[in-house]
Design goal:
Helix content is 36%, strand content 12%. By secondary structure, the chain is α+β, with helices and mostly antiparallel strands. Strands 1-4-3 form a 3-stranded antiparallel beta sheet, with no helix packed on it. A hairpin with a 2-residue loop joins β3 and β4 (44-46).
Length: 117
């Protein structure tokens, strides 16, 4: 999970969701991580990830956050205005899919599917 500063909207139009999905897809190609359904909301996102090797999830999330932030600033002409997210991503280990909170927390997400599915 990662939340945007001051609850501002990081996804302001439908194309913004697609831009994030493209960065997410590139991250999945670069790092050894499997993704399950995910949720993108106007001011934050939840991803269900399973790394194949230790350290891959953190590296991928750091890359996705930095890359998406750079693309966002270029697109919205806000370069130099700092980071978008409040802090480092938050992760919560789960024992199995029965413990995933996404559906209960956000019953009406914008998108909820793996890329290219």
């Amino acid at each position: 999970m990662n939340r945007v500063n001051a609850k501002q909207q990081i996804f302001q139009k439908s194309e913004d969701y697609g831009a994030f999905e493209r960065v997410l897809g590139q991250g999945l190609e670069r790092y050894e991580v499997q993704i399950s359904p995910y949720v993108l909301l106007p001011n934050h996102w939840h991803l269900v990830l399973r790394p194949y090797r230790d350290g891959q999830m953190g590296k991928m999330l750091r890359w996705i956050t930095a890359t998406h932030t750079q693309h966002y600033h270029v697109h919205y002409h806000t370069a130099g205005e700092g980071h978008l997210c409040q802090s480092r991503f938050k992760s919560f280990p789960t024992k199995d899919d029965e413990h995933l909170p996404i559906g209960a927390t956000h019953p009406s997400p914008k998108w909820c599917h793996p890329p290219n599915s």
